[in-house]
Amino acid sequence: MFRFRERDFEASEHEEGASPAWPIRYADLEPYYDQAERLFGVHGRAGDDPTEPPRAQPYPFPPIPHEPLLADLFERFAAAA
């Protein structure tokens, strides 16, 4: 499940005009993201995505292992980095 980033709630300028800030902040919704992830059985590991917003709780369930073909590809990319 996708979580908005903190910057998504801020005002921003675009070529065709300004987008105003939301009347709420990411921190206001963060507890509800935790609840939704638990209800929907979301799997993952916090910290894998360097752009992810702060979270009060870890993912409710651990990451699902990669399929064998993708696991091999992942290991090759990790070794090359």
Describe this structure in words.
With 81 residues, the chain is mostly helical. It has one domain. Helix content is 35%, strand content 7%. It has helices at 26-40, 68-80, and strands at residues 12-14, 17-19. The longest helix is centred in the middle third of the chain and has 15 residues, at 26-40. The two termini are 27 Å apart.
Keywords:
81 residues, mainly alpha, 2 helices
The ordered string of helix (H) and strand (E) elements is EEHH
Alpha-beta content class: mainly alpha
Query: How helical, in percent, are the residues?
Result: 25-40%
Distance between the amino and carboxyl termini: 27 Å
Overall shape: it is: flat
Q: Could you say how many structural domains there are in total?
A: 1
Biggest sheet: strands, sense, closure?
Answer: 2 strands, antiparallel
Low-confidence stretches: none
Nearest-angstrom radius of gyration?
Answer: 17 Å
Write the SSE topology.
Elements: E1 12-14, E2 17-19, H1 26-40, H2 68-80
Antiparallel strand pairs: 1-2
Summarize the structure.
By secondary structure, the chain is mainly alpha-helical. It is 35% helix and 7% strand.
